[in-house]
């Protein structure tokens, strides 16, 4: 049995005083139960539909997309829906193309989502970014929240960079390149550190001077 997110949070709190204060404020990292392998396709489709949208808009679009499939949201079911229906649901041309490419790659066996959980993190990313419209960030979110991997460090995420700057760097937001090595001290629990960076980014009471009041 692997290390739990709670245990990883407690371990980082022992190592780092700022993480310890964030744990006191926000508790251990909270993450939903993993979806079964049969729903990984739906999870990625949702991620594609939600790209560059805020929470409410993303939920609305996804609800419209999901309504076009009765029953399980599978690759075969998506490919059976007329292309125009995805546009009518609110997907852009690019997102429609991405959804269909994902469905086609799963359908023809190039992307084996039922087995992807057995791969190393870098291999998961390599497989997923072969799909049109899925970049490193989407692949990293899939690793963190669908596969529940503990050592993902999404330096391209502005929320992570902003939170790191507020909590650890006297309010100075690092670039993605600058942030990359700064995560090394949190290995092998960088996903947990990233979650606390998100928490710090949303915490109005952070003093922005490398610590929490």
Structural notes for this entry:
The chain folds into two domains: 77 residues, Endonuclease Iii, domain 2 (Orthogonal Bundle), CATH 1.10.1670.40; 110 residues, Endonuclease III, domain 1. It is mostly helical and 213 residues long. The longest helix is centred in the middle third of the chain and has 15 residues. The mean pLDDT is 93. Helix 2 crosses helix 12, helix 3 runs antiparallel to helix 7 and helix 8 crosses helix 9. The two termini are 36 Å apart. The protein is elongated, with a radius of gyration of 19 Å. The protein is 56% helix and 0% strand.
What's the architecture of the largest domain, going by CATH?
A: Orthogonal Bundle
Overall radius of gyration: 19 Å
Q: Main beta sheet: strand number and arrangement?
A: none
Stretches with pLDDT under 50, minimum 5 residues: none
Order of helices and strands: HHHHHHHHHHHH
Assembly type: single chain
End-to-end separation: 36 Å
What form results from the Cα inertia axes? elongated
Strand content: under 5%
How many helices?
Answer: 12
CATH fold-level topology of the largest domain: Endonuclease III, domain 1
State the secondary-structure class: mainly alpha
Overall pLDDT metric: 93
CATH class of the largest domain: Mainly Alpha
Q: How many β-strand runs? A: 0
Helix content: 55-70%
- Structural domain tally: 2
The CATH homologous superfamily of the largest domain is named: Hypothetical protein, domain 2
């Amino acid at each position: 049995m692997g290390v739990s997110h709670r245990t990883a949070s407690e371990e980082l709190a022992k190592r780092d005083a700022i993480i310890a204060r964030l744990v006191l404020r926000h508790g251990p990292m909270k993450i939903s139960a993993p979806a079964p392998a049969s729903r990984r396709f739906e999870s990625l489709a949702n991620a594609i539909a939600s790209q560059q949208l805020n929470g409410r808009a993303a939920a609305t679009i996804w609800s419209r997309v999901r309504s076009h499939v009765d029953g399980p949201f599978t690759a075969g079911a998506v490919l059976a829906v007329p292309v125009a229906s995805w546009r009518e649901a609110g997907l852009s041309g690019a997102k429609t193309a991405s959804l269909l490419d994902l469905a086609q790659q799963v359908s023809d066996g190039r992307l084996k989502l039922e087995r992807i959980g057995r791969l190393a993190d870098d291999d998961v990313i390599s497989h997923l970014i072969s799909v049109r419209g899925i970049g490193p960030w989407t692949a990293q979110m899939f690793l963190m929240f669908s596969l529940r991997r503990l050592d993902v460090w999404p330096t391209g995420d502005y929320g992570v960079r902003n939170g790191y700057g507020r909590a650890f760097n006297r309010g100075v937001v690092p670039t993605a390149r600058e942030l990359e090595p700064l995560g090394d001290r949190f290995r092998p629990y960088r996903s947990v550190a990233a979650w606390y960076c998100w928490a710090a980014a949303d915490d109005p009471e952070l003093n922005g001077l490398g610590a929490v009041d």
